[in-house]
Amino acid sequence: MSDIGARRRGRPPRTESADTRDRILTAARAEFSERGYEKTSVRGIAKAAGVDSALVHHYFGTKEQVFEAAVEVAFAPALKVRDSVLDGPLDNVGERMTRTIVDLWENPVTRTPLLAIVRSAVNNETAAAVFRRLVSAQLLRRIAGELDAPDAELRAELAAAQLVGLAMLRYVIKVEPLASADAEHVIARVAPVVQGHLTGRTGTAA
Amino acid sequence: MSDIGARRRGRPPRTESADTRDRILTAARAEFSERGYEKTSVRGIAKAAGVDSALVHHYFGTKEQVFEAAVEVAFAPALKVRDSVLDGPLDNVGERMTRTIVDLWENPVTRTPLLAIVRSAVNNETAAAVFRRLVSAQLLRRIAGELDAPDAELRAELAAAQLVGLAMLRYVIKVEPLASADAEHVIARVAPVVQGHLTGRTGTAA
């Protein structure tokens, strides 16, 4: 199972220290989203959270571990994607996966942590490693597990590539006319491609 | 025509100042590739080129203008993509576009400037604007001009999204098994999708 769901397992009920942890994680998420991994410092996170740097280290350890904890929280949407993809028939899995990803990027609340992940992973190997652990292990491999194909993981990654590229051009770099195109129109164009990658039933026939 | 091909038009033959300009551009390209836009400084570029910062400003102006000049040089590969895409029949344009992009990323020499563009454009609005001017205006709109479709620009951008996402997951973030998959196999899987986006002859049929 994911680390996200189990994050608080074994810990006592909500206390002052749990509040402090959450405040640090919220500050960390905001800092990493705005600045990316390299330009974010533990000191900056501590300052934004109104605590001493030593407390950040006490709760989370190194900057890498703070990042991983912050992004795991931020990456809860990935579980939503996974659930929506796994919950339904395979013959429209492409439409479900595409719609869920587009919805997450259209919503400003979920767009922020997604930007943190993209901006950090592109520029920093530590953040890229976290991306690989979270996205590959928790999302894509679970989707691949549902596919009846020997190259299921590659299929899931090629489908993800279409969606990552869509997010890059539409939401991050904002290339027109794609950035302003109607979301439903975009979903209608991309879903068959994602479906084709995942199940081979469309998108690869000549 | 592109600014790249015309870059030296009207300038005198190679002189000491042309050498200095080229040395500055080479240093700038290396700095932007490694650090991305925000962490690169004119002073750092000048130091790497062995010149005074004032000379960098004299030749190129602001940091944004240095970036644009460096990336235009770095972006010569985009013209290769455009030429290879435009030079041939439309019914295998997807294969040509995919192969050219994959070849550029497979080659370490051309991978560096492409990384500079991706890393900078994701983290900085100035660099994103340069990306939009270069990629949209010089590459995608020219490809769209060859397509006989009312939504040609959107088609070119959705095709580009598949290829940008492929580059992100395979070459930047290095998700497995995609990162280690055989290049020809990847081209064979992605080309029909790119073809489908561009011409609608494959990839969107149910």
Polypeptide structure, described:
The structure is a homodimer of 206-residue chains. Chain A is an all-alpha fold and 206 residues long. The first copy, chain A, has helices at 16-39, 42-49, 53-60, 63-74, 76-86, 93-106, 108-123, 125-146, 152-172, 183-199. In chain A, helix 1 (16-39) packs across helix 4 (63-74), helix 4 packs parallel to helix 8 (125-146) and helix 5 packs parallel to helix 8. The longest helix of chain A has 24 residues, at 16-39. The interface between A and B is large, with 47 and 48 residues.
The CATH topology of the largest domain in chain A: Tetracycline Repressor, domain 2
Largest interface: A-B, 47 and 48 residues
Whole-number total of structural domains of chain A: 2
Shape category of chain A: elongated
* Assembly status: homodimer
**How much strand content do the residues of chain A show?**
under 5%
CATH architecture of the largest domain in chain A: Orthogonal Bundle
Count the E strands of chain A: 0
What is the CATH superfamily label of the largest domain in chain A?
A: Tetracycline Repressor, domain 2
Mean pLDDT of chain A: 82
Tally of alpha and pi helices of chain A: 10
Query: End-to-end distance of chain A, in Å?
Result: 39 Å
What does the main sheet of chain A amount to?
none
Radius of gyration of chain A: 18 Å
